[in-house]
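Supplementary notes (optional reading)

For those who missed the lab, this is the record we used. Protein: ATP-binding protein. Length: 505 residues.
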Amino acid sequence: MSYARVLCVGLVGVDGHLVEVEADLAAGLPGVVISGLPDTALHEARDRVRAAVVNSGQRWPNRRITLNLLPATLPKFGSAFDLAIAVALLGGSGELPLLPLEGVAILGELGLDGAVRPVRGVLPMVAAAARAGIDRVIVPADNAAEAAVVPGLRVRGVDSLHRLVCFVRDGRPLIEPAVDEMPEATTGPDLADVAGQGLGRRALEVAAAGGHHLALIGPPGAGKTMLAERLPSILPTLDDDAALEVTALHSVAGLLPAGGRLIRRPPFQAPHHTATVPSIVGGGAGLARPGAISLAHRGVLFLDEAPEFSKPALEALRQPLEHGRVLLTRSRGNAEYPARAQLVLAANPCPCANPAGDDRCECAPTARRRYLGRLSGPLLDRIDLQVRLQPMRAAELMEPAAHESSAVVAARVAAARQAAAGRWAALGRRLNSEIPGPYLRRPPWRLPNPVTADLRARLDSGSLSARGFDRVIRLAWTIADLDGRVRPDHKDIAEAITLRTGEGT
């Protein structure tokens, strides 16, 4: 037999695609040709596979070898095809009977000694195989626990090409995944640690309940960073679909913790203010990798000292914030990553950042405007809550009142989210922040004119944009959900305007 076919999975962005690895061995000048839009890593697979086959005690066929990866129109990236290529090659040369591997997807990178190395993105790969009807996969032993979280799959691990050859020839067992059954740790910063800042705590709760973006502006020591770091502690744990999305993104980025568990806690990303555009929204040579906003998907992206970030990095967030996805276009193809994260910005009100606040500010008015002007109007227009925090007082710091813990606030947030999900179920949405403006401005969800009178006046005067109008309405619905009301009233609108504009804070 001079032809063999083995199944593998390719990855473009976070989307997996079933790939057929074909091997044809013919008479002629010895050599290896790989077709099917391979990248540099795949071209180099010729040398890796040759060394791995020989060092595993197998005979290398001294023939003309053609390897083809189908579909040929799909770009192929990375070294995850190595093991499938080696198996197809041995099958085509007659060294290995491939009947035991019929309908099995095979993934893994080969070392020169024949060892099977772990690869990135195994979770979305095996999930794609399962969607394509594959029920058995063989992956690197170090990735087996990760692959095993996909339901309906029989996963086996392999640590060397020699072990896989022995399995096919003699039926020797492969490695079964050892999934860590311990629950994910939930310890972290607690909201009870924050002294004072009742307005900031309220804004944080509203942001969590409705999935709204938040800007915290105030002097150093006011508690901006403490509040932002505690937002994940009051967010609900991720359901199965969201957990699979988040875990897949971290798998693609190579950041998945060991143990094979789904990530259940909302992620928290806090890049330094020197971060580049690719590190924020994604990029890199070859196949674009997910950036911080995608790694914060279903969680929180926190930009501390936001005016210190480069303007291109900040402006690059505008489209992902609006659409919840990032499309990265490169010469070798497009990669699309989900990016539905809550953005939290923290900023000092001026360059001098006097801890006493505005009363002792040494900056000229033009300097203050220029500093916060680094946060552009279009970006701020997408931030639902814009809250100004006051300096901390001695009484609040030294004799703090007993504040609610994250667990108590999280229970209210969960109840508010449940109310919103029930209301918007017919639209296929779960959060108030996700509801398109037109739905909020027409029956049955349009609020009475007396309730929105102040809001409409602000829109007519130009002090509020049309986008801002819709965002205030969404905030009012979240406030009503938190307070247990069926519909927002004029007090909810007034509080939403305060939280949106920062007036009165």
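If you only remember one thing from this example: The CA atoms of residues 107 and 139 lie 5 Å apart.
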